[in-house]
Amino acid sequence: MVCSCLVVRGMAESNEEHGPNRRDLLGRLRRAAPGTIRSALRPVLGGEGAGASPEPAARGQGEARPARRYRAADQWMGDRYTVRVGDRTHRFFFITGCYKSGTNWAQNILNLHPAVNCKGEFHFESLKRGFDEFTTVPWYLSSRPRMARIARDSFEDVVRRMIYARTRDKAGAVWLGDRTPRMMVELLPGAPMVNMIRDGRDVLVSWNFHHLRVKSAERVWSGARALAERIIPEFRADPGAFEARGKGFLFDEGWFRAHAQLWAKIVLHDLKAAPVLRERGTHVLTLRYEEMHRDVECARRGLYDLLGVDASEAEPLSRETKTLPGVAEPSPTKFMRKGAVGDWRNYFDERLTKWFKDEAGEALVRAGYEAGDGWG
After folding, report:
1. Domain 78-199+290-313 superfamily per CATH
2. How sure is the predictor about 61, in pLDDT bands with cuts at 50, 70 and 90?
3. What local confidence, expressed as pLDDT, does residue 223 receive?
4. What does residue 57 show for φ and ψ, rounded to 5 degrees?
5. Any long-range contacts for 215-220 (C-beta under 8 Å, 24+ apart)?
6. Which of 81, 107, 109, 290 could make an SS bond with 92 (beta carbons 3.0 to 4.6 A apart)?
7. Domain ranges, ordered by start, for the chain
């Protein structure tokens, strides 16, 4: 490999002297080299990288590939959620919480501000699960302290790069965010986090209609695929019929219990995680969906204060931007179906009440939605 390096270096240094034929041979060698060798020879061979010029295209394969501009997000400074790109400083933040709990609403409000651009959903938690195993299993080489630090840096580079690359469509944005319904797990140490919480009973009602609207049964919980194959076409044919008690996924015991368990798992985790993150110095804003309904302007100020941006510079709340409470024209076929508080009372019966108490009663109480199990 050392000999290869010397040969290639000599070719590179004499590139201009020997003209196009030598450059073409160098390009073929670059493309033929195994990935590990190509990586080691990158300073010699050139190609993509910070400050590198576009990689020459193979003969007959079109234009040269552009340099990876998103690598600018690797240059963190001071803390791992702040990067400097040219003359501008960018910071990263996250919106989390259970599905159907208002994460879209919080994102829409934040995006009214010219300094903020938030996108969803990356689901970096899928990557983090693998990363955690990769760096903690004792017999993996990657679990050794130095290797684990390198892995952590690489993981954080992926998070910053992807958010940065996806938010290039808003020129003035300096706060760049990811909105993903998920547990509140730290991805970039210290990055501000918005955590949405909503009454789990309303979450299940909303979840039910969300799954009725999906295009394929493959996107529904695996235990209810057979049911989905049957009732999704029925819903498309007559959506209004599913507003009645007894219709939809909500009344399938397996689907209901699985989703009640998931809501409880996320909420209980986040109630425990929030104070721990705050003790570390991370700014965490916990927003309840119900409180946003009661006073959306107060919630709006809290969101802007979290990022330290001037609320007066933001666009006003509006129906067009989906930032006001509720929806103008409720419909079971729309993503923003109703946006109501306490809608579960229109659907729950004794069975659903029992199932929810069994699977998520403790979480409901600990989240402050009921004083005990006497509700029904």
Report:
1. P-loop containing nucleotide triphosphate hydrolases (3.40.50.300)
2. low
3. 85
4. -80, 150
5. 220/249
6. 81
7. 2-67, 78-199+290-313, 200-265+326-366
